[in-house]
Amino acid sequence: MRMSFGLEQKMVQKQVLAPRMIQSMEILQLPVLALQEKIEQEMNENPMLEVQEQEASDLDENRREEPEARAESEQEFVVEEGKDNVDDFERLLEMDQQYPDTFDERPQRSSGQMEDDAERRMDALANVQSRPETLQDHLEHQLSELSIEPQLREWSERIISSLDSNGYLTTSLEDLMPADADDELKELAMDALHVVQSLEPAGVGARDLRECLLLQIDPSRMFFEELRVLIMNHLEDLRDNRLPQIQKATGFSIERIQAAWSELRRLDPKPGSIYNDAHVANVIPDLILDIDEEGNYVVQAEDRDIPQLRISNYYRERLSSPTATREEKEFIKRKLNAAQWLIDAIIQRQNTLSRVAQAIVDYQKDFIENGPEHITPLKMQQIADQVGVHVTTVSRAVDDKYIQTPRGIFPLKQFFAGGTVNEAGEEVTWDQIRLRLQEVIDTEDKAKPLSDDDLVKKLKDDGLNVARRTVTKYRKKMGIPSSRQRRDWSKR
Questions:
Q1: 463 by DSSP, 3-state: which?
Q2: Looking at the record, which segments are called Disordered (predicted)?
């Protein structure tokens, strides 16, 4: 093998994304709430950005006295791009200390601005949720009302703190004890477990599913004896719908087993889950779909909740001021450049979102007018070709975005659906196949449920050629049991 040292020229082709392009893609991908946070963060870090006032009454007196000068100074500012060094935000603090008089020249905020900021802060405080009560909080509150010995209370608290989010004690009592625990301590720990299991919700503190269900029944409940036997010995048989085996082992009739099974379904296998954080984030649509006077669907980007940004007039003037130092001007240029990039990226985001969403709506009119079951097969590449952008741009544009339509609010991704072609040559979405599959199963003879092979034949009769493995996959994904589990033994 020959090795040598020297200079070598080599031509390669590779794609390098400019920082401005990267920022535009990041802004495009943000949903409206995340964009609001991004704007707030940028405004905190970049003093060149300020919110465009919407009402003339909010403008301060100095700007009302010179409207012509203000209009001229607020024209788009073009920053020289010769300086592209790494931002040094600490320099602003240093300059503030070195030139305090310079940075005290900034105009005072108007009363309207201060009132708006105060209202926003109050709204933010009002919308802050208090910490929800946890399962441990709920149990400890009940425990505090019991008159028990200190040691028993201490062990009960230890067990409560060891419960998982569903209310189960997944750690053994032995693991909670010291290695040299004697019989008296073990008995104390067991008594503490019984205390915890006596608290609400019923079933909490169980060590497995059987114990959890048994803790939720008492002799006053209907079919108590049947429930106890089923829980103790036949949970797996119930899962697999093996009712004849249960009948043979217990002597209960099929009808009585089914009645007890129905009562069993009322029990909660995860009693602690009701205290889990079930917070559902509010959905704020990024786009609004309206109908114009001619009956056409028109998409508009929702920008009422997005602050309208502009370049600070104060820093424009500071850049041309003879009192500004070279370092100050260099800092202002960099920050102005970054501010203008952000403003342009937000404008581009709104335009791209509107164009992509309009193309989607034009393609999915049946979906809008008649509902999701009338969706047409659509791929992102088709929208990308129509709009004239890369498919990754469409992917970023629809990611986590919602559109408000006359039929409701939908995620943009829901308008994309894969599909197949039926025997008539028509495109059919997988959602339509799933709907048909559900209809076939709902109308089957429960005494002789259809196997997956039978379901394939039924779909083929409708002109839908679907593989058996696909039917099995969809059935499981839809939460539909197997034919054996769907069988109703009372209809023999």
A1: coil
A2: 44-85
